[in-house]
TrEMBL record:
InterPro entries hit by this protein: EF-hand-dom_pair (IPR011992), EF_Hand_1_Ca_BS (IPR018247), EF_hand_dom (IPR002048), S-100_dom (IPR034325), S100_Ca-bd_sub (IPR013787)
Pfam family, one: S_100
Gene for this chain: LOC115021886
Species: Cottoperca gobio (Frogmouth)
Highest taxon listed in the record's lineage: Eukaryota
Keywords: Calcium, Metal-binding
Annotated spans, Disordered: 90-109
Start-end of Basic and acidic residues biased regions: 100-109
Amino acid composition bias (Basic residues), ranges on this chain: 90-99
Protein name per UniProt: Protein S100-G-like
Gene3D superfamilies listed in its UniProt record: EF-hand (1.10.238.10)
């Protein structure tokens, strides 16, 4: 199986596995989200970006429809943010935008 294909399958399988624990079957509540982040993120580069004490704050940012749970679209947004953090760490590119002007690395993303 191709690597990207495996990544996509893993993202869907992980979401479904944890979303099935408690609450609505197709969504992650705060405890399920915390469990996903604690158990499925092991590398120091990404683990440093996640503070278990701030899961509530992360939930607030991810939960765009304010229903108290994270749906698959919102979960994908979380995975994207973590991927961007890893990309920035690995390449030294990206980061915050300057006022009125993008950094060189962000134009190439």
């Amino acid at each position: 199986m191709a690597r990207l294909e495996q990544v996509i399958i893993n993202i869907v399988d992980i979401f479904l596995e944890y979303a099935d624990d408690e609450g609505k079957k197709s969504q992650l509540n705060i405890e399920e989200l915390k469990k996903v982040l604690e158990q499925e993120i092991q590398s120091p580069e990404l683990k440093d970006k996640i503070n278990p004490d701030d899961i509530g704050e992360a939930m607030g940012m991810l939960d765009k429809n304010h229903d108290g749970e994270v749906n698959f679209r919102e979960f994908c947004r979380c995975v994207c943010v973590l991927a961007k953090c890893y990309y920035q760490k690995k390449t030294g590119r990206g980061g915050k935008k300057g006022k009125g002007k993008e950094q060189e690395g962000e134009q190439e993303d």
